[in-house]
Request: fold
Amino acid sequence: MRKFNHIYIEEGAHNYPLTAKLLNKNTNATKIEIKNYKHIFNRPNQNFQEQKESMKLILAVKKENYYYAGSKVVNNYGYEKFYYNTMILNCVYNCEYCYLQGMFNSGNIVIFVNIEDFFRETEKLLADIPIYLCISYETDLLAFEDLVPYTSLWIEFARTHSNLLLEIRTKSNQYKMIRNLQPTQNVILAWTISPDEIIKKYESKTPTLDRRLNDIQTALIDGWKVRICFDPILHVKNWKQIYKEFIDKTFSMIQAEKIWDISIGTFRINADYLKKMKKMRTNSDILYYPFLREGSLSVYPEKKSGEILEFMIDKVADYVSREKLFPN
Ligand code: SF4
Reply:
């Protein structure tokens, strides 16, 4: 994990051990005291991509919204009570299709240092109902593990709360950071994977497919529940060939019968975010696709997305039973 040259510290964030740890790790950083992280992070007219080149760290205290109801456009895998939370805003990677560019004004990273408050509020929710909670939204949590061990802490939290089902989604190859932990049945480690061609061209700074597959296979052998996410599938030139070879390669490197389930989805995005992203990436072929508008979303035409999903499901079903596939 990189060092930061600037760290903004919100009023109140100093009182947390994580803040002290992060400041100790970055003794040379310029420290700037701020009243509220939103004054820095939400400021209009910032250059997201420029900031991604040299990300600043913002340490803040989350004071509300310790979880959110999951979006209808995201697979809930049959769980009615589907929530997500955001302990970190923004990601170490910079995928060309990433919705965070459209959602946030800033490319800098916010870490909420008060994880105990997240635990406390989640416990209140769990007192009433079993829930499905995704904790790697608006970031890639495991990719930050060497900086903030939030993935490990949540796994330990889940271990003592059996009516919580946790999903931790990543594109990282940082499984080694949590490998010392015993697998627990109510935690799903979910890897998003893409063909090498797509990774090289559109998933800047993410690990190669081989590295991700190696992590997946190790986690499977260790006994974790593992979800594979073929999502987003991009409609690129020669997509059939590219995705066919990719699926064959995937299941030549991991044990298909051990996979918990698989999510399959074509690229879709909030139309307002897309508008903003296109201004930022004027030469992007994938963002300038002639999408159709479906409510608030920009999507591939139904015929095209149907064809892609059918193709992917047929190919994946050569390796994994259809009951384990969740198209989106
Ligand atoms: S890994 Fe996910 S969150 Fe991170 S940049 Fe890529 S799409 Fe965005």
Remarks:
- The chain has one domain: 6-327.
- Residues 76 and 82 are 6 Å apart (CA to CA).
- The chain is about 35% helix and 20% strand.
